[in-house]
Amino acid sequence: MSRLLRRQGWVAGLFALLVILFIITKLIQPGYGSGDFGSLARAVLPYAFAVAAQTVVVIAGGIDLSVAAMMALTSVTAASMMNGASEEYALFVVPFVLAMGFVLGAVNGILIIVTRVPDIVVTLAMLFVLQGAALLVLDAPGGAVAEWLKGLISGTVPIPGLPDAIDAWLPKALLVLIICLCIIWIPLRRSKLGLSIYAIGSSELAAFRSGVPVARTRIIAYALSGLFAAFGGLALTMSTGIGAPIPGPYLLASVAAVVLGGVALGGGKGGLLGPIVAVFVLRLVRTDLTLLAIDPNVTAIIEGAIMVAVVMFGAFITMRGRQ
Amino acid sequence: MSISAIQPVPFGRRLKRFMADRPLIPLIILLVILVVILQVLRPGIVNERWIANTIKFAIPLAILAGCQTMTMLTGGIDLSVGTVATMSAFIMATQVVNQDPAVAFLLAMMPAVLIGLVNGIGVGVFRVHPLIMTLGTSLIGTGCLQVYQRTVIASGAKIPDFLAWLGTGVTYGFPNALLLFVPLAALIVFTLSRTGFGRLLYAVGDSERATRLSGVQYWQVITALYVISSVLAGVTGLLYIGLIKAPSLSLAEPLVLPSVAAAVIGGTSIFGGRGGYTGTIIGALILTVLTTLLTILQMPEGARRILFGLIVLFVTAAYLRIVEER
Amino acid sequence: MTANPLLDATGVAKNYGAVAALRNASLSVLPGEVHALMGANGAGKSTLVKILTGAIRADAGRILIRGEARDVRSPAAARRAGLLPVYQEPSLIPDLDVLSNLRLTGTPVEPFRAWVRELGIPDLDIRDTARDIPLAVLRVLDLARALAVEPDVLLLDEMTAALPANLAEKVLEVVRRQGDSGRAVIFISHRFVEISALCDRATVLRDGETVGVVDIVPGVEEKIVELMLGARIVKTHVAARGASRNAATGRPRLGVRNLRVGTKLNDVSFDLADGEVAGVVALEGQGQDELFSALAGSIRPSGGTIEVDGQPVKFSHPIDAIRAGLAYVPGDRAEALAMQRSVRENIALPFSAALRNWGPINMRQERARVVSAIERLQIDTRAQGEVQRLSGGNQQKVTIARWIAADARTILCFDPTRGIDVGTKQEIYKLLRELAGHGKSVLFYTSELEEVQRVCDRVIVIFGGRVVDIFPVEETDEPALMRAAYGLPRGAKADVGILADPTANISDSTTPVAAP
Question: Is B213 close to C336, i.e. CB distance below 8 A?
Fold first, then answer.
């Protein structure tokens, strides 16, 4: 028990912080209800996937600067493919876009292995390339999305037997998030591949000596990151109904949430739960600032400052750990 | 391992070494080739006016690429230059309406110094990766600018005549911007090659451990560097607003990516320790000509970004190979 | 000995660039034996181990396992071939718990638990994260993990280093039994006591070549020392030095009192006088790296004091050490040099370090200083545009020239002659003597014992993080230094030495380490 607490202490603290923030929210806005929670969940969705994408590579000891650009590209691809197409066609679009994310992520990994250029430079170059590709697909926000996809994340999940009062607090968006992450993350975490990803991030030399195929594992980590980013792109399209070629602030947000979520930037540590909770914390802070009737631009500044402070704190901790 | 020049060296290796030693010559050849292609595609386009115009647009890019050159020499990068340039331009244009130009200038440079300081402390003291750090401060800066915009929305904006003259004016066929750029470029080149600070930039980027063992305090060098880089970006913003003449909240953002590409093309290693400003200037010219070329070929903006990204990746990978050959 | 060897490696060679790490190494291990692999620092032991375990590929040579030629391409391939190493640094993934580490390598859990108990750790919780487990226990777990898959050949690199006596005893016992059960163990160790108690035969490497395979019998120790040193054993004369011997006068230039750094350096005290070259003699990893780093201001000591000219000092950055006149020349030249920059910039680097020197450089003055340093050290300046194009010897000269140009009073030289040619070595010896002649002081660690006699006035022997002996260099010859480095008492002869008594208490010579 004590070990569980020690290991999950950080995440538990985050949860506590989240609860406190909810209480504060309720105090600021006594009318804060299930509907607002639903919109929070919807707003969190793309961020959460961006963070998941970043988490996988950071655990593997790398960093992926192309997350936001990858989301933009997959988002516009989905939106433009579904534009004017039938509802059923979307059944094909979704797996196609996910596969595209997976492959492009793998390209990131392969380029890092083959060119031996550091991950930060390769993913920076890929950021440019993916951004450009997004602009080629759609040069201005546009496209459309199948109605059933939109419906997938709006409203709540009716569970028979549950009173409506509880039901209302189970937005579909939250459920989609949990299902998508669990389907990939839980089997991964339990597999040897998952162990290998932690291993190469924790100590590449020890991993190599333990017989882990380091290069292959790294490529797969980036591919998974691409897959999560594609989920994020789809989520963007689903929640806005269109695709936007200019990437949102997801890169910095993903790094900040990873750090806040207890995943060391050096790699090897942490899990997915912490960063996801951290995303909720960061979004809820934004909600509270908005509820306090603070100028949304000031909110952006405060948010940016929080993220920079978190990243600085994380870097400081990493530096301390190294000494 | 051998250092003697008598042994025959394979041509490929000799070429690589030549490229590593004299990066300027192939760059100039590339520039000339691009101009020739342009002339072939659009006969008559290359004339005195075109040249002056190209130089005018290359200068802001070259200064921002100077920021990237200096930060890249230490193994860093400064992605906040676009935001800083935009901020100082926007503040200048709005403050000059009811302030003395000198006061407006000081106000315009303030955010530059501040952002540079935060960048420097984040990178030098807290050891945040420069990319993340400068991206973060640039987001904050953009937020601040938006808030600021609200407060001045009523007073309007104007471009000071002096900046317009400097940005767009041409005297005897020479763009006036050269008046600012030539001394500035000379100063950067001098700083990099003939001052202790310049030496340290190269040395820190080459091997931080070696400089540490020689008694260099990393945070001092890095903090000074990012402040200088930010101030240069601020100056670029003032010049650029004189050229574009339309203050907007994303004025200089499109220059960020090309500024990185210009420094990389100019032979500055993104890993630090190698490169120089003269190469960067030619890199900026090449990119400006390339942009014209792509516009003539009706290449969309997206293709241009892809091309720039691939250039950065390709040049970096090629550079790694050249270094490993030795 | 008619049995076929379990492992038979012949003619193994490996080059790193122009440097040959292994020329012609061979190693043959029979079933049921514990085989010692010995050699002085840089003889190629670790390279051979890396090749056998698939960490690197050999350039030449043949490896037979159970008579079959096997191409060991990766650590995973080595495992499949039945070859399992236990490295000096445990290869458990620090951020995973023990159970996950077992799963990662496909190790069965129950045999592992059995071995762990056998090795003297009764209360292991396999859900503990490796990072939270003390180093000594971690090494034992690494061994247990290897034993659990029942490898044909077990490769142990300095297995008992950093182990407290009780664990070390258990480990040795298990290793011995492993040999009895028909498997084989390759045992790399610097400790003669263990080798005599444990091993059947020893293969000795020197300069990348196998120079002998000996049976371990009482008294073989001298023979092994001889093999490790080779022909050099005859050149035991002390070079005549014109050094002024004013070492005893006045207070010491540098005083080190009870210095401790982490777990590696436990208790080191000595003085360094002006005009003196003091040699540090130590096997690899006895704490000398930490000692030099602490004196250079790179790491902070965890205890003890450093005095410069009688004043206690605290260094928090190398600049503090440099201001106190202590200049550090690291063994790895890449650590000290900006490789892509010119000779001139590298030599002048310390001049630009301080904030007040960031302005324009007085090129003429700088040139004069650099040129005089270059001339003094006779640096080959044909390729001075980039330091990385210089030969290793010239690179080393540049790092020293930097501090001569800066006129440092005390130079800390950490293995400055590693991997450089004989001619340059001679020049460096001469230079260090000259510096001492001018009243400077030098602290000199070298992995080549022969150099100690050539250059030093005094010898400071460090073993297991402690100073075990300090004596004037005249009182010694190379075999004596070798014995001292191996922690054997000075003056002990083989026939009366520890080897004569295999029951000697092992705990006396194991590295003292805080119990977990």
Answer: yes
Residue pair C411/C403 in contact (Cβ under 8 Å)? The answer is yes
At C148-162, the pLDDT tens digits run 988 889 998 888 776
- Give alpha helix (H) positions in C406-477: 422-437, 449-455
C partners (3+ CB pairs within 8 A) are A, B
Q: Over the stretch B193-233, which tens digit does the pLDDT of each residue have?
A: 889 999 999 999 988 888 988 889 999 999 999 999 999 99
C395 falls within a domain = yes
Both C25 and C173 in one domain: the answer is yes
Question: Given the DSSP bridges, would you call strands C303-308 and C254-261 parallel, antiparallel or unpaired?
Answer: antiparallel
A115 at B interface, C-beta within 8 A: yes
**Are residues C76 and C22 located together in one domain of the fold?**
yes
Q: Any bridge partners for residue C25, and if so which?
A: C12
Q: Is the dihedral of CA B278, B280, B283, B289 positive or negative?
A: negative
Q: Can you tell me whether residue B91 is helix, strand or coil? A: helix
Q: Does residue A197 sit in helix, strand or coil? A: helix
Backbone conformation region of residue C327, classed left if phi is above 0, alpha if psi is from -120 to 50, else beta: beta
Question: What residues in B contact C363, CB-CB < 8 Å?
Answer: 194
B199 and C352 in contact by Cβ < 8 A? Answer: yes
Specify the number of domains making up chain C: 2
3-state secondary structure of A157: coil
* The two three-digit tokens of residue C177, written as one number: 């039994």
Q: Are residues C189 and C56 in the same domain?
A: yes
Q: What is the CATH number of the domain that holds C70?
A: 3.40.50.300
Interface check A120 vs B, CB under 8 A: yes
Q: Is A213 in Cβ contact with C104 (below 8 Å)?
A: no
> pLDDT tens across B22-70, in order?
667 878 888 999 899 988 988 888 888 889 989 999 999 999 999 999 9
Tell me which residue in B140, B300, B317 faces A115 most closely, judged by beta carbons. Answer: B317
Residues C217 and C283 grouped into a single domain: no
Whether residue A264 is predicted with pLDDT greater than 80 in this model: the reply is no
pLDDT tens digit sequence for A271-306: 889 899 999 998 888 888 888 888 877 888 888 888
- Does residue C498 lie within any of the structural domains? no
User: How many CB atoms lie under 10 A from the CB of residue A151?
Assistant: 11
Residues 189-248 of B with CB under 8 A from A: none
Chain B residues whose CB is inside 8 A of the C338 CB are 202-203, 206-207, 210-211, 273
Do C211 and C325 lie in one domain? The reply is no
Could you tell me how many CB contacts below 8 A there are between chain A and chain B? 125
C15, C162: one domain? yes
Q: Residue B142 has which token pair?
A: 């953009």
B-chain residue closest to A136, CA distance? B302
Is the residue at C188 inside a domain? yes
Q: What span, in angstroms and rounded, lies between the C-alpha atoms of C77 and C62?
A: 16
In a domain, C87, yes or no: no
CA quadruple C107, C111, C117, C118: dihedral sign = negative
Task: Tell me the domains of chain B and their CATH numbers.
Answer: 56-324 (1.10.3470)
Burial class (CB in 10 A: 0-12, 13-18, 19+), C86: buried
pTM for the structure as a whole: 0.79
**C105 contacts A210? CB cut-off 8 A:** yes
Q: Are residues C22 and C164 in the same domain?
A: yes
Q: In what order do the strands lie in the sheet with C326-329?
A: C311-313, C303-308, C254-261, C265-272, C466-472, C458-463, C277-281, C441-445, C410-414, C326-329
Q: Which of A54, A124, A259 to mutate to test the interface with B (most CBs of B within 10 A)?
A: A124
ipTM of the predicted structure?
Answer: 0.83
Amino acid at C273: A
Q: Is C316 on the interface with B (CB under 8 A)?
A: no
CB contact under 8 A, C104 and A196: yes
**Chain A residues lying within 8 Å of C50, measured CB to CB:** none
Domain that includes residue C173, residue range: 7-82+151-229
